[in-house]
Amino acid sequence: MDNQEVCLRAEHICKIYPGTKALDDVSFQVLRGKVNVLIGENGAGKSTLMKIIAGIEQPSSGKLYMDDQELSFRDTTEARAHGIGIIHQELSLFPNLNIYQNIFMSREKTKHHIRLDNAQHAELTEKVLQRLEHPIPPETLVGNLRVGQQQIIEIARNLIQDDLKILIMDEPTSSLSAQEVQILFKIMRELTAAGISIVYISHRLEEILQIGDHVTILRDGKYVADEEVANITVPWIVKRMVGEEKGYAHRERNVDWSEVPTVLEVRDITLPKSGGGYLLDHVGFQVKKGEILGIYGLLGAGRTELFECIMGLHPEHTGQVLLDGEEIKVDSVAGQIHRGFALVPEDRQREGLVQTLNIAKNISLSSLKACTKGIFLDKKTEDEQVERQIKDIHIKVADKRLPILSLSGGNQQKVVIGKGILTDPKILLMDEPSRGIDVGAKAEVFDIINQYAEQGLTILVISSELKEILAIADRIIVLSNGKKTAELAGDEITEDNLVMASYQGHHLQASGT
Amino acid sequence: MKKNQSNHGLAMTLLKGRTFIVLIVLLIFFSFAAPNFFSQNTMLLIAKHVALYGILAIGMTYVIITGGIDLSVGAVVGLAGMVAGGLINKGLTLPMFGVTLYFDVPLIVLITIVVGALVGWLNGIVITRFNVAPFIATLGMMYVARGLAMLHSNGATYSNIVGKPALGNTGYDFFGSNIMGIPVGAIILVIIAVITAILLKFTPFGWHVFAIGGNEKAAKLSGIKVNQVKIMVYILSGVCAAIVGIINSAQLVAAHPASGESWEMNAIAAAVLGGTSMAGGIGGIGGTIVGAFVIGVINDGMVMCGVSEFWQMVIKGLVIVFAVVIDQFQRNLQAKMALQARGEEKETAASNPGGNLA
User: Fold this and answer.
1) Mean pLDDT along residues A411-439
2) How far is B279 from chain A (nearest CA, A)?
C-alpha cells in the first residue's frame, strides 16, 4: 500500500433514504492509475456510493477528499469540473439526437459563444471513436445504434473531457459482446497508464480478476473488506459478499415430489431484447402441485420477465407453457387469470394497488365477476369474500372501507396477495413479495405462502434475498443473464451455490461467441 | 432484398416530404375547385392568416419538443391585442398622479411583448418550480389570460385603434399593412422563423431543448439546467403569442377580447403536421411553417369553395389525425430500416472475422 497514491478518499459516508440506510459509515479510497473494483450483492450500496462521488446524490453525513482537499459536490457539473466522470448503469443518452450531439451535450464548442461548431464536434467525435476502435459516422442517430455501441458512446462522452481524473463505470460490460469487452479492457488499460483512476462496478467476477487492481466489497450498505486482486480468488469474494449472518429457519417438508403431479411446465421460453440479445434465453422448468419454486438471480437476470411471459404480458415471446400437461396459448392477462394464474407484482405501489380505491375494493378487484347478480355487483357476496380473505391472511384492518394507503407496507402487501388468491388460482406467481416490508410482516407473508402451499396451491417466488429464498423454497432455479444456470433441490441449496450460479450466465457470454 | 430496400428509400423520401406534398396537392385541388383561388387577393389573405398561425406554431414547436404543451397562447393573443389597443385608445391612467400617459407605438409593442413574456414566465415557473403538468398549468393560464382580456374593457371591443396624431401614437396599423404587396405579418413570420430555426439548430440552447424532450433525466445528469431551459421555452411561446396578438389587432384595426379563441389548437395542429412529435424530442421550424400553410390553405380554400363551417371542422380534424397516423408509419419504417442496416453490418462482420478486434 505504501507506493500507492490515493486520488480520492470518501470517509465515513452515510446515506439515509426514507425507511432505509443505503450506506452505513462506508469509507472508500480510489487509487491513482488503478482499476478500483467495487463489488456487492443487489442493494449493497455500490451504485449509491458512486452517485455520491459523482455528485448525483449528496451524503447524509461523511466527507469526500481529493488530494487532501475537502470537497462537496452539489451536482454532476461540479463533480465534472473536478475531473470525475461517470458512466451510468442505465444508459443516459438521447436517442433522438446524433452521436456528436450526445457526446458534446452541455459542453458544446461554439464560435463566438453563440453558434455551435458542428464541424469541430464531428471531427473530435471521429477522433475519439477512432481511439475506441469504433469508427461510427458521427452523424448517426444514437437511437439506431446497438446497445453495445451506445455504451461506447457513453465512454466517449467521458473521454472527451480533457482533465479526466476519475472515471466511474457502473456495470459497463453488462450489455457488451465479448469482443467489445476486450476493446473496453484495452481502453481501460490505456486510461490507467495515462494516470486516470477507474472505479469499476461489475457483476462478472471472472472479469474483475482479469481487469481489476484493487477490490472493495460492500454488503448491506456496510464496508466488508478490501484487498489487492493479486491476492484473491472467486470463492474469497463470494464468501465475503454473502456474509455469515443467521438466516431464517428452513422449513422441512417431507414430500416425495416424484409422486406429485406436475401442474406447470415451461419449455424454452425465449424473449428477445430490443437492441439485440435475449432477456430470456430458452428457459424451462417444471413445478409440482403444492410446491414452492424459488427463482433467484441478480437484477436484470430476467426473473420478472419470466413471470410477465407466463402471465401473457409479452406476446412476442416464444416457447411453450403446459398447464396440467396440456399446452396452452398464452395470449392475454385476463385469459391467464381465467386459467388459474395469479401474479403478485414486484412494484406494489405502481402495479399492485389502486391507491384511489379503498381496502375492500382493492381486495375484490380481480374477482368482481364472481360477485355479480345479473349485471349488478352483489354487495353481499363481495363483502363476504373480502371478509373471509381479511381473516384468512390476517390483514390488520380497523375498517375495510378505509383508504388503502392507511395500511402499513406489510398489510398492503397482504392485500395484494389476497387479491390474487381471491381469483382462486392454481398457480400463484410472487415477485419479491417481501420487498419493503418489516421483519414481522415478512414472517407473516412467509406463513401465508406456506399455508397455501400446504393446501395444494403451486407457488413461484422471486426473491433477491438469499436467506429468504433459502428458507422458503422447496426447489430453486437460478437465472443469470436470461439463462437458467442452475436448478437446486435439497442439500444442494446453499448460499454459495446460488451466488456462483447467479454469475454464471455472464461468464458464459463473456467467453462464448 | 436490395430492391426491397430501394423501395423503402423511395417511400422514406415521400414520407419525409409528406406535408409538403399535401400542401401542393391542396393548392392544385383548390385552384380547380375555387375559381379565384390563385388571385392576388386570395394569396394575400392566406399569407395574412398563415402569418398568425405560423408564429404561434413556432413557439408551440419549441414547447412540444421539450415534451410540454402550451394551451394559453390563444388567450394570450386576445390579451395582447387588448393591452395594445387599450394603450392606444385609452392610454395608461395613473390615478395617484391624476394623469393619463399615451406611449408611442414602439413602446406599446414592447410593453405588449413583455406582457406575453410574463405570461410565459409564469407558465414556466408553475411547471418547473411547482411541478404542475404543462397541460394543467397552461390550461389554467388560458382562463386567467382570457379573463384578464375581458376585464380590460369589460368585454367590449377597442375599435379603430389607429391613435391620434396629437398624441403622437399613430402608426399601429403598420403591422396590418403591406410592404410592396407583402403583408407585414408574413415578413415578421419569416424573420421569426429564421431566427428561431437558427436558435434551435445551431446553438447550445437548441440542443438542450431537444435533449430535454428526448430524455429529461439524462439531460439533468449531463448538467443541463433543465428548469431554466423550460422556462425560456414558455417565455418564447408567450412572446410569439403576444406578437400574433399585435399583428392580429393591427390587421383588424380593432382589439376584441375574444380573438384568438381556440387558436392554440391550430398552432398544435401546425406543429404536429410539420412532424413535431407530441412525445417530445423531435421536430423543427421548417416543418411547422409548412404545417401552418396547410392549415391556412385548408381554412381559406374551403371558405372559397363554399364548404360549410361545420364540414370545415370535420375535414380539418381528419387531416390532423391522418398526419399523425402517417407520422407513426414513418417512424416504424425508419426503425425497420435501422434494424435492417444493423443486420447487414453483422453479416459483413461475420464474413470478416476479427476485423475490428483489438
Assistant:
1) 85
2) 11
